[in-house]
Amino acid sequence: MKNREKREGPPGRPSLMETRMLVFTAFFAALTAVGAFLAIPVEPVPFSLQTFFVLMAGVVLGPRYGALSQGVYTLLGLVAPVYAGGASGPGILFGPRGGYIFGFIAAALVVGFLSRGSTRSVRGYVQVAGAMLAGVLVIYGGGMLTLHLVLGLDFRQAFLGGVLPFLPLDILKAFLAAPLSLRIKKHVEGFK
Fold it and tell me: How many Å apart are CA 100 and CA 54, to the nearest integer?
């Protein structure tokens, strides 16, 4: 009975598993922030390692906690300099970069759903890599939309300036993050 109480927790309090998942959620929010500082400043949107951690969050944490981790990151950036290049505030979130940042939440959700049931196998790697490529497209969709709405670029210009220069590197990040995510996911699932 005591073991069950530890797992489920007292009534009205989160279970041990939920608490652990919230810790991992905070950890991936922090990793995304660290990835923002590992950036090459280019306008209007810098190159960074954020997408690497966003994609991993979806696989490792699943759709719910993966999206939550990016929501925490997004909200944190309103008050702390955790966006790419040490930026923060509503001006960034609702400016040309905002679509990419909101896209992080949606991408983690999509990657989490598409990678459900993946295992450490060739099939699992292909599933996760495909999910991550879909996540990259989600991020770019949000980014192109805000470049169009905020800067007035047509979609061709938004693609050429806000997607094309970053696409090869983000595809590489997806293929590198896939096996690492599967390995970490196995350990995180062991905590459940």
Answer: 11
Amino acid letter, residue 32:
T
Residue 84 and residue 50 in contact, taking contact as beta carbons nearer than 8 Å: yes
Axis-axis angle for helices 167-190, 122-151 (nearest 10) = 130
- Structural domain boundaries of the chain? 2-187
Q: What is the pLDDT of residue 18?
A: 87
pTM flag (> 0.90) = no
Answer with the residue of higher pLDDT: 32 or 48: 32
* pLDDT tens per residue across span 139-183: 999 999 999 999 999 999 999 999 998 899 899 999 999 999 999
Could you tell me which CATH class the domain 2-187 is placed in?
mainly alpha
Residue-wise burial string across 170-190, b where 16 or more C-beta atoms lie within 10 A, e elsewhere: beebbeebbeebbebbeebee
Dihedral over Cα of 59, 63, 65, 67: its sign: positive
Q: Which residues contact 92 (CB under 8 A, 6 or more apart)?
A: 77, 83, 98, 101
Angle made by CA atoms 56, 91, 85, in degrees to the nearest 5: 50
Classify 82 as helix, strand or coil: coil
